[in-house]
Write a structure and sequence with these properties.
By secondary structure, this protein is an alpha+beta fold. It has ten helices and nine strands. Helix 4 packs across helix 5. It is globular, with a radius of gyration of 20 Å. The N terminus is likely disordered.
Length: 317
C-alpha cells in the first residue's frame, strides 16, 4: 500500500513543479528565424498534445516518401490505443478502421489520443516492414519522432509517445523554443498545413456494426480568423494549457537597384506553454510580434549574436 501512495505523491509533486515554472513563450518570424519576443523559452517541461505536431509530420513525411495518398491508406485501431485511457470521442474500438487522413484529422484537430496511437501504430508498422524488422510499431514510430528532433536540432526535446499524455515512464519534455522550431519545420509542408488549418472536418469510422460519421472540430479557437494557419493545442495537468499558432502576412515586396523585385515571405510562429489564457495571450502577441519584426527590418535586420537571435531550423528531409 505504501509504494502506490508514494508513486502518487511523486507524480503530483512533479506536476506541481512543472506548474510552478510559470508561462513560457516564444514569438519568432519563421522565414528569417528572428526571435522577436521570448520568456522562459529554453526551460524543459511537458508540452501535452503539441507532441502531435511531430506525430503529424512523421505521418506526412512517410506518405510523401513512398508517394501514397493518405486518404487511400486504411489504418486499424490497435488494442494498445485503448490502453492509454482518456477521452474517446468517436467511441473507437480495436479493429475499427479509418483512412489515415481521417485519423490525422481527428488527432490534429480534435486532439484525439487514440487516433494518434492509431496513426503511430500503422505508420510505425509500415516503417518496420520496409526495413525488414519486427518489433513494437508505436515504439518504432516514436523513434522516428526523436530522429526528427535530432535532425532539426531540437536539443532539449525527448518524445516518449505519439500523443503527449504524461503516463508512467512516458513524460516527454521540450521547450517553447524547440516547439517553435518544430512548428516552423512542420508548416513548411503543404500536406501538414492543409490538415491543421481546417476549422472542422467530417471523418468516417468503419466498424463491425457499420460506418459511423463524426464532425471533428479544431480545438484551436484562433483557426478560421484571417491569416491564421494552425497549428496545435494541448492541455494536461503537468503541462497546463499550451498552444502553437502560425500567422501569415502578405509578403514584403521591394524593388532592387537593378529594377527587379525581391519578395520576402512573412510568417509568425507563436508558442505558449502553461499559459493561463492561451488564446487571448496569442492574440495579443500577434501585433506585438509584427511590431518587433517591422522595427527589426526597418533597422536593416541587424544580428549581433546569431545563436541567441536567430532560430535555425534545418530542412533535412
Amino acid at each position: 500500500m505504501i509504494r502506490p501512495f508514494l508513486c502518487l505523491v511523486f507524480l503530483l509533486s512533479g506536476r506541481l513543479a512543472f506548474a510552478q515554472q510559470g508561462e513560457a513563450f516564444m514569438v519568432v518570424e519563421a522565414h528569417s528565424g528572428k526571435v522577436l519576443i521570448a520568456s522562459n523559452s529554453v526551460v524543459k517541461r511537458p508540452i501535452a498534445s503539441l507532441t502531435k505536431i511531430a506525430t503529424g509530420v512523421i505521418a506526412v513525411d512517410w506518405a510523401d516518401a513512398i508517394k501514397v495518398d493518405l486518404s487511400q491508406v486504411e489504418a486499424v485501431v490497435p488494442p494498445s490505443a485503448l490502453a492509454i485511457g482518456g477521452p474517446n470521442p468517436m467511441a473507437l474500438q480495436p479493429g475499427d478502421r479509418m483512412s489515415l487522413r481521417d485519423a490525422l484529422y481527428s488527432a490534429m484537430l480534435g486532439s484525439d489520443n487514440i487516433a494518434a496511437m492509431t496513426v503511430a501504430h500503422h505508420v510505425g508498422g509500415e516503417i518496420l516492414r520496409a526495413r525488414g524488422k519486427g518489433g513494437d510499431p508505436v515504439e518504432a514510430f516514436v523513434g522516428e519522432m526523436n530522429e526528427l528532433a535530432k535532425a532539426i536540432k531540437l536539443s532539449k526535446t525527448r518524445f516518449r509517445n505519439p500523443h503527449g499524455l504524461e503516463l508512467p515512464k512516458q513524460t516527454g519534455l521540450s521547450t517553447a523554443a524547440d516547439v517553435a522550431k518544430l512548428s516552423i519545420y512542420a508548416m513548411r509542408k503543404p500536406g501538414f498545413t492543409f490538415i491543421v488549418r481546417q476549422t472542422d472536418r467530417q471523418v468516417t469510422v468503419h466498424g463491425i456494426n457499420g460506418d459511423r460519421s463524426f464532425k471533428v472540430k479544431n480545438t484551436n479557437e484562433l483557426v478560421g480568423q484571417p491569416n491564421i494557419l494552425g497549428v496545435k493545442t494541448g492541455t494536461t495537468a503537468a503541462a497546463g494549457a499550451c498552444l502553437s499558432v502560425a500567422v501569415e502576412r502578405e509578403p514584403l515586396v521591394r524593388e532592387k537597384p537593378d529594377g527587379e523585385k525581391s519578395v520576402t515571405p512573412r510568417r509568425l510562429i507563436i508558442v505558449l506553454l502553461n499559459s493561463p489564457d492561451r488564446f487571448n495571450r496569442a492574440s495579443a502577441l500577434i501585433p506585438q510580434g509584427w511590431d518587433a519584426y517591422d522595427r527589426w527590418v526597418a533597422a536593416g535586420a541587424p544580428v549581433v549574436n546569431r545563436e541567441k537571435e536567430i532560430l535555425e531550423v534545418p530542412n533535412p528531409r
